C-alpha cells in the first residue's frame, strides 16, 4: 500500500517519452543516452530512437565534443500537434524546466 500522501503511479504518462526526453536534455544538454534511458525508465536503444526522432524533426541539434555529445534544443519551433494556438517548444519547456537550465540548452 502506498504512503497516504502519495498517488500510485499510473500505467500511462501525461507527457510522452519524447517530451520527457526534451525536459531531461533541457536540464542537462550533455546527458548521456544511458542516463536519459535511466531517467525515462526505458532501454538505451529506445532513448537513442527518441533522440534520433527529435533530431530528424529538427527539435535537437547534436554537437560532438570528444567522446561525448551535447544537444541544443530548437526552442523556437512549434509543437507538432493539433493545438490551435501552436505554442513553441520553448513555451512548453518554460513550464517544465527552471529558466537557468532552459537558457543553457536552447538555440
Describe this structure in words.
α2 packs across α3. This protein has one domain: Winged helix-like DNA-binding domain superfamily/Winged helix DNA-binding domain (Arc Repressor Mutant, subunit A). The chain is globular and about 50 Å long. The relative contact order is 0.16. With 107 residues, it is an alpha+beta fold. The chain has a two-stranded antiparallel ribbon with strand order 1-2. Helix content is 44%, strand content 11%.
Key phrases:
Arc Repressor Mutant, subunit A, two-stranded antiparallel sheet, 5 helices, globular, alpha+beta, single chain, 107 residues
CATH architecture descriptor name: Orthogonal Bundle
Count the E strands.
2
Mean pLDDT: 83
SSE class: alpha+beta
Tell me the CATH superfamily: Winged helix-like DNA-binding domain superfamily/Winged helix DNA-binding domain
Major sheet summary line: 2 strands, antiparallel
The low-confidence runs, each spanning 5 or more residues with pLDDT under 50, are none
- Into which percent range does the helicity of residues fall? 40-55%
- CATH T-level topology: Arc Repressor Mutant, subunit A
Summarize the structure.
The protein is α+β, with helices and mostly antiparallel strands and 107 residues long.
What is the strand and helix layout of this fold?
Layout: H1 17-27, H2 33-40, H3 44-56, E1 60-65, E2 68-73, H4 89-96, H5 99-105
Helix pairs in contact: 1-3, 2-3
